Amino acid sequence: MVRRFLRILPLLFFGCGGLLRADSTAQALELYKAKRFAEARTAFEQLIAAEPTNGSAAFYLGDMALTRDAPEEAVQWLEKATALTPNSSEYFRELGDAYGLSAQRAGLFSKLGLAQKSKAAYEHAVALAPEDLEARYSLFNYCRQAPSIAGGGMDQARVQALEIQKRDELRGALALVELSVAEHKFDEAFATLDTVRRRHPESPLPDYQFGRACAMCGQQLDQGAAALRHYLTITPDENQPPLWAAHWRLGQILEKMGDIAGARAEFAAALKLNPTQPQLIESAQRLK
Fold first, then answer.
1. What would the mean pLDDT of 91-114 be, rounded to a whole number?
2. What is the pLDDT of residues 186-202, one digit of tens each?
3. Of 79, 102, 129, which residue is a domain's last?
4. How far is CA 86 from CA 92, 254, 285, in A?
5. CB burial string 169-208: b at 16+ within 10 A, e below
6. Range of the domain at 25
7. Exposed / middle / buried, residue 98 (Cβ in 10 Å: 0-12, 13-18, 19+)
8. Of 31, 48, 67, 140, which one has the greatest count of Cβ atoms within 10 A?
9. Domain boundary among 86, 110, 129
10. Over the stretch 51-84, which tens digit does the pLDDT of each residue have?
11. CA–CA gap between residue 158 and residue 179 (Å, rounded)
């Protein structure tokens, strides 16, 4: 659910003190970009201690808290970041992520409130930047997964998928495929995927979504296995499905085809990449 992009912090040059702050900011950012997160965290903490109104420093501290799987801390920093920089769609989008992850761990009475805050943050991100596909996709995912009591629902998700499609035909079509699969409308999903794969042969994403649909419905298994094997030849970026997911879906297809040894091998490959994923553990244990 959480994205990582390179952000460029504003460098302020106001006299000697401004130069020092700009230098400290640049150093902290370089540590972050190098994924030296422990050092970057210390640098940003020092920066915000010296400059409490530095919204960018608060944002990065929240971002790194999410990376450490500490969503409650992330909420505190990102609430501060959005208060200090109220016009940043990106900051509100990440605050939505933090609320959402916090909701997953919250007790029954807190869960709904945090979920609603997550949706509100995503909606605010979209309002600030209507062309920001990441913000719209976050809102789409929320609506697709959340129950109606928390403001979710397939109709709202479809609205966002169509808005995404207006701006990015491929990504919007794949969002619509996700809805079709979630509603078990597999013929509809396959028809959309056939069109998308013809129009966008350069993209690996339709291959993954085709294989995923095949694994879930048990249809077109040979073609689904071939699509996932093709996907496994790429190195996906952070916004594409991870390789462990492709191994897992391929294992499900092979299991349905009766190739138990092949399924075991794919589940093992998936677990090697993501050893704590409960669904993978369950799949591997089932075939022991």
1. 92
2. 999 999 999 999 999 99
3. 129
4. 8, 50, 48
5. ebbbbbbbbbbbbeeeebeebbebbeebbeeeeeebbbbb
6. 9-129
7. buried
8. 140
9. 129
10. 999 999 999 999 999 999 999 999 999 999 999 9
11. 7
